[in-house]
Amino acid sequence: MTDQNGTRSHIRGPFLVPFAALGMVVLIFGGIVGISSLQMRKDLRGKVIQRYADIWGPISKFHVDQGVADDLLGILDFEDTIIFSIMSAQEVEGALGVQVFDGEGRFLAGVPVEIDGSDLSPDSVERMQNASPWGVFWPRGSDEDSESTRQPEIELNVPILSSDGARVDYMARYFMDGYQVRDELSIIDKNLTRQASLAFAGGTLLVSAVFLWSFWRLRRANKEVAERAVRLAKANAELAMVAKTSAIGAVASHLIHGLKNPLAGIREHLSSEGRNLEEDDWADAKRATGRMQAMINEVVDVLKNEDIDEMETLSGEEIVLYLKNKFEPKAREKELDFGVRSEAGVELSARDANIAKLILSNLLDNAIDAVSKGGEVETRIESQEARIVFTIIDTGPGFSEAARSHLFAPVQSSKAAGAGIGLAISQQLARHLGAELELTRSSSSGSEIKLIVPVAQGWQVAN
Fold first, then answer.
1. Residues 41-45: contacts with CB within 8 Å, 24+ apart?
2. DSSP letter string over 281-309?
3. Could you report the per-residue pLDDT of 243-253, keeping only the tens digit for each?
4. 78-87 helix and 2-69 helix, angle to the nearest 10 degrees
5. Collapsing DSSP states into helix, strand and coil, what is residue 411?
6. 416-419 long-range contacts, Cβ below 8 Å, gap at least 24?
């Protein structure tokens, strides 16, 4: 039951992610639509109210001009003429009250009698000096101290300019019935709400369709990438197996090549059924058997530790010790000057080092067999930039021109020239390491062969 619940949760998880992300996108989109709608509502309401204020600008000027031209009002002071002219707007249908202020915002007069007689606020005085009318809508009336519900009002503020239009001498404030304005604003709010809802619904559908389609495409692409990754991993595993098989084949070839001569000698001794064999012959057979056993053990160690040796390292000094123990006895028999030396600090992975030892064994076998009595064979281990270089130098007769043309190909073995299947096997092993095996010098005075391994293939030069 636990496994089933876990599986259901694992299946639901990927499907909840797109819907959660889509919800966040829709929420953000809704916020943008809402904010935009509120800003548009504010702008439209301001334009509607401003329209009424702009209408009452010419009306106020008409009343003032008419009052100044009236013979009866002409006998009054100019200020009284202005006041009576403006207050005549009280007779307009829908008018609720009128206030008159001078150019500095002081209250001069107003109707009806109970109307507020306070002076203008500093903000209103500053705005009045701009000489542009403005309006304010009061949904529940302008009397904020009234406890009863008031009818909606619209307050219209109209500056009255001097006769030359250079300054503001007076200001008229009209309080008008606000029902018509309220109905207009209500219609605007309804239209905006409907349009915002349609925009939100349409946008949500479009965003959802695009988002879910994109997520479906992304899941499909991820699935294809995952399938390709599986195929690539399988191909890499197959290539690794091919490479490992190739290395095992090369190592096995090395073993067969190394066992050929000792087996031939033992067979020759055994073919005589022990007749006419001297003590030296039995010693040769014993040494050949020991060589075969040592070679088999060496190859078995390489194959057995193929994976474990990835975590181990061998130093250049350990390689030197191995080569000396293996080849100094053979070099002494031929009275050769045999030497192996390594640059300090060289370290390499044990896996690659074991394969490299097989390559060096083939090369040194050929070199020692090719050099005449009293000759020299030297092995050097050095670091050069990002590479480890193994160099084998001998004073043998060198390779013939024919041997050099097929140096690393399987040919008829000729120990006098030092060429044969051993070099072909060594080249195959070198390729498995990503290394290079090349003949850098060959003449009648000797040969030089180098095994060059890049550090990137697992070799390191210790500091």
1. 41/188, 41/189, 41/192, 44/188, 44/192, 45/137, 45/185, 45/188
2. HHHHHHHHHHHHHHHHHHHHHHHHTTTGG
3. 555 555 555 55
4. 130
5. coil
6. 416/370, 417/370, 418/366, 418/367, 418/369, 418/370, 418/447, 419/366
High-pLDDT (> 70) share of the chain, %: 74
Integer angstrom CA distances of residue 151 from 146, 155, 178, 181, 375: 11, 13, 7, 12, 126
CA distance 392 to 379: 5
Residue 387 β-bridge partners:
384, 454
* Domain boundaries of the chain, sorted by first residue: 16-177, 308-463
Q: What is the DSSP string of 413-451?
A: -BTTTTBSHHHHHHHHHHHHHT-EEEEEEEETTEEEEEE
Those residues with Cβ within 8 angstroms of residue 83's Cβ, 6 or more apart along the chain or in another chain: 100, 108, 109
Helix and strand totals (H; E) in the chain: 10, 13
Per-residue tokens: 120: 């203008």
Q: What is the mean pLDDT of residues 383-399?
A: 87
**Fold category of 16-177 in CATH:** Beta-Lactamase (3.30.450)
Structure-block tokens of residue 1 = 């039951």
Q: Which position has the token pair 């207050």?
A: 87
Domain topology for 308-463: Heat Shock Protein 90 (3.30.565)
| Fold agreement between 16-177 and 308-463 | no
Q: Judge contact between 328 and 360, C-beta under 8 A.
A: no
Q: Is the pTM of the predicted complex or chain greater than 0.70?
A: no
Cβ count within 10 A of residue 186: 10
Separation of alpha carbons 199 and 147, rounded Å: 41
Q: Are 452 and 389 in contact (CB under 8 A)?
A: yes
Q: What does the mean pLDDT of the chain come to?
A: 79
Give strand ranges (E) for 307-358.
313-315, 337-342, 346-349
CA angle 49, 52, 53 (to 5 degrees): 90
Contact 97, 110 (CB under 8 A): yes
Are β-strands 134-138 and 313-315 bridged in parallel, bridged antiparallel, or unpaired? unpaired
Q: Tell me if 352 sits within 8 A of 457, measured CB to CB.
A: yes
Residue that the structure tokens 């080849």 belong to: 327
